[in-house]
Specification:
single chain, 737 residues, alpha+beta, Hypothetical protein af1432, Beta Polymerase, domain 2, 6-stranded mixed sheet, 5-stranded mixed sheet, 20 strands, globular
Length: 737
């Protein structure tokens, strides 16, 4: 376990005359507050804040941040208050602790809303003081390192949130070390089959390639010495998540990844960076299209480096990154590498001043602050945040020569909204490099873009199909929702009147008399208009609302009415019975959503999406389809990103019935006699049924087996794949979407 002297020694190594007493007092207070509490691992709880504080010290953060790391859980998990923290440790520490503290004591309609509000609070707090996010990232990193002690379902939920939010935030702050470790840990729990196989393959490749790595390092080092350039060279294996992403995006197997090893050359000056690039290109042939100059145009997180891929010794493709020591420090530690707090006097209000400077440096943070104010639905805020975080960059120019940074795949509409919201709203066309292009044109690095506006133009919902930035999507949705709200209210009234006639309710009179006001609160709507809007957007069915209104007006439910009608018919003399007219309302049986809990919706048909085949235990989300009920998708299903946010609904597994669920798997094995039979027999022994399959023989002597299997849950699937992988002839056994 980390000891307090290790933390204070680390702080003393980079701060002159540090306030170590503040850190010591924070440690004593935290130890007393968490006394007697243990983690799931069996360790004393204090081990967690100690590790968080050490991670912060390792990033060379100031004393207040390290102290806040020691205290970050005291307000949430003990009786300690923020006021008490401020009184004992100062407002600087208290503000950071308050920013990190979750809103766990508030009531929310669902876990999704609670998570969204927590993230929203974190974003607001970090806009004032970026140190809040630094503590939260250190907290999440240590929690991910010890995630093995949690239940499997909890592991996947936490890993999914980390992959969606915290790893991208670390990337945006330039915290490369934190980002890569978080991504690899997420892969371990979200795709354990892929993680295990990649770990083994990378280990074997690294062991076999050590002589080659040493050879390349030696050649580049000699190159530097001959040209009297001071520098150091080292090689590293790419982290597992980046390898997995490349394999999936390009449809490659591990054996087809040629640039697993990246070499870094760290030199003393900017001039030397370009000199080394010239020497490397002179020695080895560069791969076309694989050179990137992030020194001239840095990334949004301040990352600077030259990237080139060359055909190195023995014809092997290798990636080389060239940067200065300062660039390397920023690449590894991001904002922490040039911490503004060190420049502020001891007596100053450190956090606020530096926080504003950081917010100005990170324009993306200001953009998030702008559009989060326009989003009242916290789940929509989360959706936009994910969209904003997971983007590579493309750099384009305004007609005046200013550079605009946009996500890869951005269009002229995204560019227009980046100029100003009014320019985006009135965008009628665009010129790229002097030529008229469609609005859905994908902008390329170096494009010069000019927007053509029309005062009579309004945003189109069709733009949502191709825009990439959160700002554009938010503005377009805001406009279309305002227009569509009126249509939705009109449609809802129409549907309610039709449904009301079936049960003898005059809906126009009921609305006029204010009867729907009583229902608005029951359906968690602030007004009748909001209730009507939700009906128009298919959040609630007209039948559900009318059934509830009937009960309010008549003091009995429609089910009770139907029972009375049946009883009345049954008591009539047989000779007097006439064929009864159909009841004004046909009360259907409630469709059963086996093992699912659906937020805010009853009596709805549920089906599972065939595009991603969700399994019990996976994070899922529902989509309200027109006429087909709710379709359940995995939350990371690529199709979810294209759905209308208004029709997404919270869904969770609950009391799952043991029945077969389909899943697609891919098995790569040597083409040997009897292998297919052995694999099929093994799956059968593991109670995994093969529903269908396809086979493809490769020229390298392997065979790809693509099966659709039936399993009861995610754990059974991954356990079966792990067993299959143990066969010597099997090279790969993974689940595919």
């Amino acid at each position: 376990m980390i000891r307090i002297n290790e933390i204070t020694d680390k702080v003393a190594s980079y701060i002159k005359d540090p306030d170590l007493d503040l850190i010591q007092r924070a440690y004593v207070f935290s130890a007393q507050a968490h006394d007697g509490v243990v983690r799931r691992s069996g360790e004393p709880y204090i081990s967690h804040p100690m590790n968080v504080a050490y991670l912060l010290a390792d990033m060379q953060l100031d004393e207040a941040t390290v102290a806040a790391g020691l205290l970050h859980d005291t307000v949430e998990d003990t009786d300690t208050t923020v006021d008490e923290i401020e009184e004992l440790f100062g407002s600087d520490v208290a503000d950071i602790v308050d920013g990190v503290t979750k809103i766990s004591r508030m009531d929310f309609e669902s876990k999704a809303v609670q998570q969204a509000e927590n993230i929203r609070k974190l974003i607001l707090a970090m806009a004032e003081d970026i140190r809040v996010l630094m503590v939260k990232l250190a907290d999440r990193l240590h929690n991910m390192r010890t995630l093995e002690y949690m239940k499997p379902v909890k592991q996947r939920l936490i890993a999914q949130e980390t992959q969606d939010i915290y790893a991208p935030l670390a990337n945006r702050l330039g915290l490369h070390r934190v980002k890569t470790e978080l991504e690899d840990l997420c892969l371990r729990y979200l795709r354990p089959d892929v993680y295990a196989q990649l770990s083994e393959a990378v280990h074997e490749h690294r062991a076999a390639g050590e002589p080659y790595i040493d050879k390349v390092i030696g050649l580049i080092t000699d190159m530097l010495k001959k040209n009297k350039i001071k520098g150091r060279v080292f090689g590293r294996t790419k982290h597992l998540h980046s390898i997995q992403v490349k394999m999936e995006q390009q449809g490659l197997t591990f054996d087809e990844i040629y640039d697993l090893i990246a070499f870094r050359v760290i030199v003393g000056s900017l001039k030397d960076c370009y000199a080394v690039l010239g020497l490397i290109h002179a020695a080895w042939r560069p791969v076309p299209g694989r050179f990137k100059d992030y020194i001239s145009i840095p990334k949004a997180n301040m990352y600077q480096s030259l990237h080139t891929t060359v055909m190195g010794p023995d014809g092997e493709r290798i990636e080389i990154q060239i940067r200065t020591e300062e660039m390397h420090r920023i690449a590894e530690y991001g904002v922490a590498a040039h911490w503004q707090y060190k420049e502020v006097g001891k007596g100053a209000k450190k956090g606020k001043t530096a926080g504003r400077r950081d917010a100005e440096r990170y324009t993306w943070l200001k953009q998030i602050m702008d559009w989060q104010r326009e989003l009242s639905d916290p789940r929509e805020f989360m959706s936009s945040l994910r969209l904003e975080m997971f983007q590579d960059e493309v750099y384009v120019f305004t007609p005046n020569g200013d550079i605009k940074e946009l996500p890869d795949g951005a269009t002229p509409v995204d560019f227009a909204y980046s100029i100003h919201s009014e320019v985006g709203d009135k965008c009628a066309g665009a010129k790229v490099n002097g030529r008229i292009v469609p609005l859905q044109y994908r902008l390329q690095n170096g494009d010069s873009v000019e927007i053509i506006t029309d005062k009579n133009r309004v945003p189109s919902r069709d733009w949502l199909k191709f825009v990439k930035t959160a700002k554009a999507r938010t503005r377009i949705k805001h406009y279309t929702r305002t227009v569509e709200k009126e249509r939705a209210i009109s449609l809802a009234k129409e549907m309610l009147e039709k449904e009301g006639r079936r049960v003898g309710i005059n809906m126009q009179k009921a609305i006029k008399d204010g009867e729907l006001i009583k229902l608005a609160g029951e359906f968690n709507c602030g007004s009748v208009d909001e209730l009507l809007t939700q009906i128009g957007f298919s959040r609630f069915t007209p039948r559900k609302v009318v059934k509830r209104l009937y009960a309010v007006l008549h003091g009995e439910t429609l089910d009770e009415r139907k029972l009375k009608e049946k009883a009345a018919v049954a008591t009539e003399p047989e000779e007097e019975q006439q064929p009864s007219a159909p009841s004004p309302v046909e009360i259907g049986k409630k469709p059963k959503a086996d093992g699912l809990q659906i937020s805010g919706v009853d009596n709805v048909l549920v089906r599972f999406a065939s595009c991603c085949n969700p399994l019990p235990g996976e994070p899922i989300i529902g989509y309200i389809t027109r006429g087909r009920g709710v379709t359940v998708h995995r939350i990371d299903c690529p199709n979810v990103g294209h759905f209308e946010d208004e029709r997404l609904i919270q869904v969770s597994w609950e009391g799952v019935e043991e029945k077969p669920y389909p899943a697609k798997v891919k098995i790569k094995c040597l083409n040997k006699p009897g292998m297919l039979g052995r694999i099929c027999s093994m799956l059968a022994d593991l109670d995994v049924n093969i529903d269908s399959g396809e086979f493809e023989s490769k020229v390298d002597g392997t065979t790809l087996l693509n099966f659709t299997v039936e399993v009861k849950d995610l754990d059974q699937l991954y356990s079966a794949l792990a067993e299959v992988k143990k066969l010597k002839a099997v090279k790969e056994a993974i689940r595919v979407s």
